[in-house]
Amino acid sequence: MASAQVPTSLSSFPEELLARILADCVTPPQVLPVRPPWHTQLFPCPSLLARPPPYTSTRARFSPLLVSRQFLRIGTPIYYQTLHLPTATHAARVLETLVAQPVLASAVRRVVLGCVSLEGARVLRACGMIEDVDICMDVYEGNPQGDAVEDLDAQALCDALDRMDLKHLTIRRSSDAYLTLTRPKYLLERIAKAVHGWPNLESVHYALKIGSTPATRPLAEALSHAPKLRSLKAQLPAIWNDLFLTISQNPTLEQIALYVEGVDGILHTTMYMMEAKKHAHLSELIKVGTSFIRTRAHTTAAAVSSPPSTRPSTPMSASRVKEVATELMNPGLSQNESLPVAGSSSGF
Q1: Lowest mean pLDDT among 106-120, 131-145, 189-203, 252-266
Q2: Fewest 10 Å CB contacts: which of 90, 154, 252, 298?
Q3: Contact 118, 89 (CB under 8 A)
C-alpha cells in the first residue's frame, strides 16, 4: 500500500493555498503610516486599538514575488489589488506599469490617493474594477482661494470618479486643507453628485472631523438616499451638528461608528453624544457601531460606617469578660489551657 506523498516545499502546495499565504505577505495595510516606523517603536501608543499595524515596507512586500516564477505569477495580481499613491510621482510610475501590462489593471480593487493629481485620476481611469477609493483632500498650490475652474487636477479626479461604481469611499484631508478652501469644497460638491451614480455604495468613512456647512450638507443629503449604504464611520465631532442626523434618515443604514484617534472608545458624556441621545434612531445606530468607554465612580478616602447588624445582640456575661481580659493581659498563655472561671472551685 503506497503511502501518501507529503509536500516537502512550498512550491508543491496547492496554488489556492499559496495564494492565501502570499496575500498575507504582499497585501499592504489599510493606511500607510504617516511617520516612519521608528517613531511608533520609540513612542508606542498606550492604546492597543489605536496602535498602527506593523509597518511593512514596499520592498519587504515585494520580496516574496522574487522567490520563484510560480510565486511571481500567483502573487503579482494580489500585490496590485491595493495601490498606495502618496504623490503624483508614485501615480505616474504605477500608470506606466499599468499601461505596459493591462492585465494588472484588472486586478486593482482599492486605490489610496495621498494627494489630488492628474496622474492619480489617470490611474483610476485605467482600472475598471476599482471598488474602494481613499481620497486625501489637499490644497491647490496654484491659488488656494481661486476659482475651481483653474484646478485641473481636482476636475480630472472628479471626472474619473463619475465613471466609477464604488462600494467603499474614504475621505481624508491634509492638515492645511481647511473645508473653507476652494479645492476641498469643490471635491465634496462633486462627490455628492457622483454618489447618485454609485448604486452599490455600502460604506463611507469620514476620516476627519466634519461639521454641517454649506459645503458638507449636499454629500450628507446624497448619502441619506444611497440605496445600499450600510455603514458610516467618522471621527467624533467636537460639538453637535445635524450632519449625521441627516444621513441616519437612510432606511438601509445599519450602524454609525464614531471614534477618536488614539482612544479605544468614546464617552457617553461628550457634548455630541448628549445631544445625539435626543434623537432615538441616530442614538441607536451609534450604539450598534461605536465602542464606548464605561465611566467609573470616583471614590474618596472617607470612612464609611457599616450598616447595623440585623442579628440581635447578646450581652457578654461577666465571666466571659474576665476570660477575655486575662487573654489580653497574658498573650503567651496557651489557648488550650483552661482558665479559671469565677464561682468555680480551684483544683488544689
Answers
A1: 131-145
A2: 298
A3: no
